[in-house]
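Problem: given the chain below (402 residues), write out its structure.
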Amino acid sequence: MRKIFSFALMLLGGAALLTSCSEDRDSNPTLIQPEKFVLNETNWRGSTVALENTKDSLVLSWSAPIYATDNAPVVVTYTVDFSPKGTFTTLYDANAEDNSAADYVTLGTPTTECLLKFGAEELNRVYMQFYQWKSAAEIPSSIKGTFRVNASVLTATNDPKNPIISNEVNISVLPYFMLLKDADPEIWYLLGSDIADGSWGDVLGEKCIPMQTIEDQKYDATTGQGKIQWIGYLAGAGFKIRGSLEDNWATQWGQGDSFGEFKKNDGGSGNISVPTPGIYTITLETDKDKLTIEAYSGTPKVFAGMAIAGSFNDWGDTDMAPCATGWENHDWYLEYTFKAGDEVKIKEAGSWDFNKGGKLVELENGYYAYGVGNGDNFWIPEDGTYLILFNDITGFVRFIKK
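Solution.
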């Protein structure tokens, strides 16, 4: 039977693995090319390490390569490579669009000690990055990996001199499933006779409107569930809320016998109709399956037009289109192609009295921001065509990459 255990047990004898890097050496060294240096074997050898149960630091140690005549002291810089595939051909680049050819990473940061400590979580994250498992069921009960150490002497300009690579040491682990990033907030969509052009279509901006996250609200890192909202004008002609625009209405919120009685995933539910035309706040708590629709207490300005302005158009106006046509509108949209580094603001057409800027937050399909009056310019991180959605009451803006 394969042995699986925690690194907590392994570290008890860890001191015996270390070969000293601090022995007394003669001065006035002459730099030479080392012939070899040794990455020490570890006492996890031959066993499978359960990474999820390992809470203590993982430790690798190695001998000091001889870089000078008479073994005189020289400052040596080390980096530790780890390959979950057992080969060292292409380094993983976190900024690259395609890492399909990568087969190893560098752990931690460069060190001048003959020792590196790192967490089991860091090692597990490497496996998740390389194998992209979608669930715990896909993870094997045992998988191998390989360590090696690089040594060199750095010049005054940080160029490596006389580099050398150690032997390789293997490990067998039981990884566990982890999220590489928090799930995007779960968003639902408004559509119907009261929404956008009133056609019940599913084209974002023109025919339906996504709900919005709420600043300072927390969203579940795994499910993305939490409280979302929309504030705008409802005439009482009817609408529904859909969880997906691609599930044939399997997820939806509708109305029961009267306003205030809302039903989830009931194909027989009616359209939601507010009793009096006006501005309403729709709040959906996706983690509690709770829908509330309340009259808005303020009197927001009704704008004749909204535009984007920025470095891409010499800070002139590029007009946005109103989502609602035929009744009071507070949502705007525009499809536009940007270059990385473009600076953008959303503003009242023909005036800078009302303008919104701020910091974009990344989503899987683009970015969002809570617009700030006279705030910093939005900075576009990457080339692309984006659907911009903006609510002039909340200041919430979405840049959805097409």
